[in-house]
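Milestone M4 deliverable, item 7.
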Amino acid sequence: MAKLQNPSLATVMEHIVGHWGALLISIGLAISLLGALLSWALLCAEILFATAKDKTMPAFLKKENANHVPVNALWLTNVMIQIFLLITLFSAGTYTSLIYLASSMILVPYLWSAAYAVLLSGRGETYEHASAERTKDLMIGGIALCYAVWLLYAGGVKYLLLSALLYAPGVILFAKAKHEQGEPLFSPVEKGIFACVIAGAGLAAYGLYSGLLSL
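Output delivered:
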């Protein structure tokens, strides 16, 4: 079965019940993939919509149509999806590389979430007084932070650098949101984080240019 073309179950069903079995599996797979694509596109649009309502992203991303669909967020999401789907046409290996890259990019928000949990419990914010619950949350946050750091390391420095190359342009939207609110672009801590992202993006760009890195 390892040598069969995907979906391998279609070939197996064709051998057992005839051509209609392969057709049934192929139709079911197509429906499943379309459903997954729709759900992920909507989820990505929802993230942009929610952050725009939270004033972290520009206000144009929270615009809704008559059916209460965040149209601008959905358009931006789908344009980016189509761009990356077109990129996969140039190389058979690119699709797998993009999966690894997406996994690395997903791990970064997990890292910051764990770090924020440690920060809150360490400072005692949102806690009325020192308690066993705060200690427990601090321990859980610390374990989560260490695990997230290890996952980023295990995922490979290559994809972490390429992630920085994609995260860096996102500052444009963040800067626009800050400008709309009349607030300073970065706090001192955010300046340090942004400097690290720019440094990583620069290394990734040089690596792609020199051939040290590739998709």
